[in-house]
Amino acid sequence: MNKKFVYSIAITCLLVATSACGPSRFVSPLKKGEQAISASLGGPIVNVPGIAPIPIPLTSITYGRGLKESLTVYGSWHTTAAVFGTIQLDAGITKRIWRDVDNNKGISVTPGFNTAMDIFDYNFKFWPTFDANYYWKYNVKTQNQEDVVLGRKHIPNMMYFGFGSWFELQSTRAHGETQQTRLLPMFHFGHDKNWNKWTFRSEIKLLAPFTSNENIVVDYISLLGNNGATGIYFGLTKRF
Asked: Which tens digit of pLDDT belongs to each residue from 105-125?
């Protein structure tokens, strides 16, 4: 069997088994007409024998655009998967469903999907996804006249937490085995450090928290002990 094909399937299984390939895409929607490009790095922490526990360096590139003040659409390309011969894409929308009167706190939902196809045998997978987040912005400053004249903007920083899941549609796994896991949940907590046009995001995820991580090939590190895995992610976004 082609070695590249084996690596392709392996990396795809890894991405699916850990329930997440990157940090949350958009938590607070972009402004109407605003665009953003982001790059992310990170993944579940695994114990590498003879080295140390390290996050798997999964990478992706995301583009988003604000369609309304409360609605953003986005799409992502998973660049690490591409190295191993897998075309993996995800896309969705972020919809704010509640905010306070000062627009400093809010709740958003992000329905979407993730797809993967290897370029050797054209095996194709499709997973619906869903995220929900509560966020609050802090370090809010009021623009004064000098800021307006000089074009300076005070973008508040933001903290958020939420949950999400992938949904497995196929009833069977490889070799005709029955699919035991249809719901792949996760919980996450993150922080955005904002500048005028840039955002640095850091996020921690509890991946598959109700699934045992014992007796599997990959030695995952988890804050929950023998369940799931813990992921660490970083992202850098440019808004324009």
From this structure: 999 999 999 999 988 888 898
Separation CA 234–CA 42 (nearest Å) = 6
Specify whether the CB–CB gap between 78 and 60 falls below 8 A: yes
| Domains: count for the chain | 1
Tokens of 45: 């922490």
Domain assignment of residue 105, given as a range: 3-239
User: 63: which 2 tokens?
Assistant: 């583009």
* Interval 160-181: pLDDT, tens: 999 999 888 876 665 556 666 7
How far apart, in whole angstroms, are the C-alpha atoms of residue 102 and residue 99? Answer: 8
Instruction: Spell out the alpha helix ranges (H) of the chain.
Output: 3-17, 79-83, 145-150
Q: Which amino acid is at 206?
A: L
Return the CATH number at 101. 2.40.230
